[in-house]
């Protein structure tokens, strides 16, 4: 059985995750640009609940989301949104993240999101890249507020 988080960890994760989504959603509203992806909620679980995990490092969060959305867009525009192209895109996303050492499990849903929404190429910039950068930016600030904490563990 996994070890339980210390009592304060639950409050910190909850508060930090809420702050991150609030910042990205508010920026999206103010800029009138799509900056929020459904997969960003799961990214917050890692970034603020498990910030030392390899899956939570900037390389993985940004690279994983970008690669996954790119794969989804390529498959959507070359093969359409059929069930089998969605499945191939998801599988290729997993392999691509493993090959590039940018595994970020929440990003695995991006090809599905791309296909279900019929996204176009600007989806790579907004919401994918800008939103992932904003999440990492918030994580850099709030995960380092407490002394003795150093986020990220590594960049590249």
TrEMBL record:
InterPro entries in UniProt = HPP, TM_HPP
Transmembrane regions: 31-50, 62-80, 121-142
> Taxonomically, which superkingdom?
Bacteria
Any one Pfam family match given in the protein's UniProt record, by short name: TM_HPP
User: What region holds the HPP transmembrane region domain?
Assistant: 17-152
Q: Which UniProt keywords apply?
A: Membrane, Transmembrane, Transmembrane helix
Q: What PANTHER family does the database record attribute to this sequence?
A: TRANSMEMBRANE PROTEIN DDB_G0269096-RELATED (PTHR33741:SF5)
Under which name does UniProt file this protein?
HPP family
Tell me the organism's taxonomic lineage: Bacteria, Pseudomonadati, Pseudomonadota, Hydrogenophilia, Hydrogenophilales
